[in-house]
Amino acid sequence: MKNRRIIVFFAMMLIIILTVVIYAANNRNYVSLISEIKYSYENDIKINVDNLDLKKEITIDNSSNFTLPEEYFALGYNLIQDNDKRGIDYLNTAFELMDQKTDFYVKYITIKLLRNNSDKLENPSEESRYILDGIKKFNEKDHELHFLNIRELFVKGSDTDEGRKVLIDSIKYILDDEKISSESAISSYRNILGMYYIMQGNYSDGIENYLETIYLGNNMDDKYYLNKALIDLGTVYSILNQYEIAEEIYEQAYDINHPNIEDDNFMKLYYYANIIECLIYQKKYDEFFDKCNEMERYIDKYYVASDVIESSILQMNIYKVKAYLELDEIDKADEIINRLYDLEYKVIENYFIDSDMAYFVILGDYYYKKSNYEKALELYKRVYDSEKTRMNKNAKEEVLHKLVWYYQSIEDYKKSSFYSNQLIEFNRDESSVVNSGYIKYIIDKYEYEKELMLASEELLKNGIEISILAVVFISSISVGAIVIFMLKKNNKIDGLTQMYNREYFDKEFYRLFKKQYKNFIYHKSSYVCMYDIDNFKKINDTYGHDFGDEVIKAIAGVSKKEVRYKGKAFRYGGEEFILILKNINEKQALRIAENIREAVENLSFSNQYKVTISVGITVVEDNKDVTFKKVDKKLYTSKKNGKNKITV
């Protein structure tokens, strides 16, 4: 009996050992297959399954015996390498079998290949499903260790409305389920999410994500994503025709330097790509060509040939064509068109996001100028038809105007009427989308702007025929409200007045001197205007601090209303205020100051008290301390000479 037990024991041990050996062998085969998959993908070659000691042949005939996603992947991958459409079917099976335990790179490469080969699918919209369903197959470790790889799946997403919605849902799934914890990863995803919201016309959510990225970036050593979000935010202002604000944001982004030279070079190039677009749409031709020259010198100095460079050079040349057409210098436009061989193909191959739509509008304008109306209409209609899935609203609006004008010019009033109605519908849709989006955002998120936004909402209820200019105006106010919220979070806003505070003034004043030399080049100056409330101590002593606060807030309101986009208004401390007025002359600066002084004098309070201010103005010189002492002295002179005066 004892011997029998010993035999059974050793038999069981032998079975366990054999099981471990077989498992180890299979595991080695499994690991070697994964390594071969990764190596082959990185080198764009077939998987050499003959070199692997696999128990199963990776062939179509043997596919019925497959059980692992890696096996289906290897077969599908090799078939795709041979341009065999059946490869997609096997990749699909691999995709269905994958779970969170599957090797990361097998999942990542499978999703990427299926997305990139979506044109071979019976239903190309399946591309979107691979992203959303595929993201859920990654585990938390995958998200933490490989977020840059996963992020890459979103950068070149679908050019359809449905596809972008899926990409948005996928990124929100990662953020909402807290799959990642690093600020760098969160910033990266928020930046991409903002981009897709803006492309969908959802400006409020897009701006929120950009601002959150900027807010996170302020607390990080690496300013890469902050830098990119700033430029993207500037582009939103440009879309809303708030070009001066856009330029200011671009310049702030340009001032950021990165220790990593590749990051720094990319951000500078990204700045140039956006600023030249902003300038050309303002018809600032001299500044546009100056920036193009700067961009070319920068590329020559820092870059080697790459897809990014080719796309950037293409963009710059397309916008040069636009400039030359508007300047009626057709020969120079001809020169660029002739130099860029096979231009339409290059546009299709090298565009970023929806820039090809804008490029086709410009090319259409070129052919129209050359009296090739058939080609021009072909390009215009390509943009019009593409917008149904591509959501490039700016390009659609521009091309609708061109189609209306063209058919009117040839007296084809039926087609002209059709495109006119399309334009009217477009403006109605934009009125509703832009305003309701902003109103909902501001009311839900930031209560201190309630009255303004409710007024805007009421305006929409009473008249949906609101013009597109009013839409842009209301939108820009809303953007400003969002920016105020974020500035509060960054300690840049004074709580009582909602003006910029002293700390932010110190930073802006310092930045002004970094840029003043540029202003002298263009023969433009900047001015500092300092003013305070006359007899403010008496106001507080006589009527109390609550009334004193009421006076301060009233003067802040007057100041902000007058300055608007001409500069920035700050509460320097107590009853003292400062304006920074950029790129204006003395007469303009004096007019702004006089308007504020007069408006304050006409303020009406319940106790009938008449409030006045004394003002000092000086031009910004090349020394910060000298400038500040001069404006302070001029304010003192106004006080000394009887108050309620301006000294320049």
UniProtKB/TrEMBL annotation:
Domain of life: Bacteria
Keywords in alphabetical order: Membrane, TPR repeat, Transmembrane, Transmembrane helix
SUPFAM superfamilies reported for this sequence: Nucleotide cyclase, TPR-like
Per-repeat ranges for TPR: 227-260, 357-390
InterPro entries with a match to the protein in the record: Diguanylate_Cyclase, GGDEF_dom, Nucleotide_cyclase, Rev_trsase/Diguanyl_cyclase, TPR-like_helical_dom_sf, TPR_rpt
Native source organism of the sequence: Clostridium butyricum
Alphabetized Pfam families for the sequence: GGDEF (PF00990), TPR_12 (PF13424)
Domain GGDEF: 524-648
CDD domains according to UniProt: GGDEF
UniProt-listed SMART domains: GGDEF, TPR
UniProt protein name: GGDEF domain-containing protein
GO molecular function, one term: diguanylate cyclase activity
Transmembrane segments: 7-25, 466-487
